[in-house]
Write a structure and sequence with these properties.
The structure is a single chain. The protein has 17 helices and 2 strands. The protein is mainly alpha-helical. The protein has a single domain (about 5-350), classed as Farnesyl Diphosphate Synthase. It has a two-stranded antiparallel sheet with strand order 1-2.
């Protein structure tokens, strides 16, 4: 995968920054409705304050989902502000999932600082996540208009799929082998569903019919699969200095991510050796896994690459990128919106941080 042209990178950065800028006031206002101490704990999670409650300028993520929600409103001929409630709602659901995922996975770091459960305890992480989830529905339903009701239904369905995907992901940790198809189904639920909602929710709020909203949703679904494929690559080979997570993070958590499943499916000599190592890992406790030497994780990563799992996943990210753009081929879109949706898809596949 090659890096994007610098001009395109600049345009994408501006698009993501617009998403953050237009969404931030409404997102802060929504979080402000939460009862103490959930409001300040949520503010810490979003990077607005530090662990001592002082104002901070933390990393709040790439803002791909808000950018998509605003663009989808423009795809339907409306102004980007029409998509703001959808952008906020999707961000709230996304961050609900992060709060719970960090706790379930035992992750102590996110975006280069301690996770909420590490700072405020597991109970507060669960409560704040639940509160963000409830708040998302409240935000998107707005005045209860027919478009808002459609958007709320879209968000609810996507959220259910996201939770299904997380359940599937956890169940995979206790199995010696998972098929590529199972991984793709899980990724479509865990990541694709919410990106599909983000890519369509602005258009739905703008009153677009399914001839516009459905192709946008399919674009987001494929984009989510590309996004997850790249995430799975970073989960094994990502640089901790840029990912903010430990080296070999997904291997430490025994995740049967796409590179692992693709490697095992080859059945070659490297895959057989990998199978033996992963079978032993399944029988270990989380505490025992944490004691595993760095060299052992490096050996597993090398076997995945030797078996072809890394290359296949890189190619799959590109295939899903192409499928995302193909979903928009027959839709009438403003030229600027089409170009920006293409740029966002390129960003997802070539991103390294």
């Amino acid at each position: 995968m090659t890096a994007a042209h610098p001009t395109t990178q600049d345009e994408t950065a501006a698009l993501l920054e617009r998403g953050r800028t237009l969404t931030a006031p409404a997102l802060r206002a929504a979080v402000g409705r939460l009862a103490p101490p959930m409001d300040t704990i949520a503010a810490y999670h979003f990077g607005w304050i530090d662990a001592q409650g002082r104002p901070a300028d933390g990393d709040s993520g790439k803002a791909v989902r808000p950018a998509l929600a605003l663009l989808s409103a423009e795809a339907a001929g409306a102004g980007p502000e029409v998509g703001v409630p959808g952008a906020v709602a999707v961000e709230l659901v996304h961050n609900f999932s992060l709060l719970h995922d960090d706790l379930m996975d035992g992750d102590e770091q996110r975006r280069h600082r301690d996770t909420v459960w590490k700072v405020h305890g597991p109970a507060q992480a669960i409560l704040v996540g639940d509160a963000l989830f409830a708040l998302a529905g409240e935000v998107v339903i707005g005045d209860g208009s027919p478009p808002a009701a459609r958007a709320a239904r879209l968000l609810a369905t996507s959220s259910r799929r996201l939770i299904n995907g997380q359940a599937q992901d956890i169940s995979f940790e206790h199995r010696e082998r998972v098929s590529v198809e199972e991984c793709q189904t899980m990724a479509g639920n865990k990541t694709g569903a919410l990106l599909a909602a983000a890519a369509a929710i602005g258009a739905v709020l703008a009153g677009a019919d399914e001839s516009v909203s459905r192709p946008l949703e399919l674009y987001g679904e494929h984009l989510g699969l590309a996004f997850q494929a790249v995430d799975d690559l970073l989960g094994i080979w990502g640089d901790p200095r840029t990912t903010g997570k430990p080296a070999w993070g997904d291997l430490r958590q025994r995740k049967k991510s796409l590179p692992v499943a693709a490697a095992l499916a080859t059945g070659n000599a490297a895959a057989e050796r990998l199978t033996t190592l992963l079978a032993a890992d399944v029988k270990r406790s989380r505490e025992e896994i944490e004691e595993v030497d760095e060299a052992e994780f490096a050996a597993r990563a090398a076997l995945i690459e030797e078996a072809g799992g890394r290359r296949w996943t890189e190619e799959e990210a590109r295939r899903q990128h192409d499928a995302a753009l193909a979903a928009l081929r027959d839709v009438s879109l403003p030229a600027a919106v089409r170009r920006q949706l293409t740029e966002l898809a390129d960003f997802v596949v070539v991103r390294r941080k």
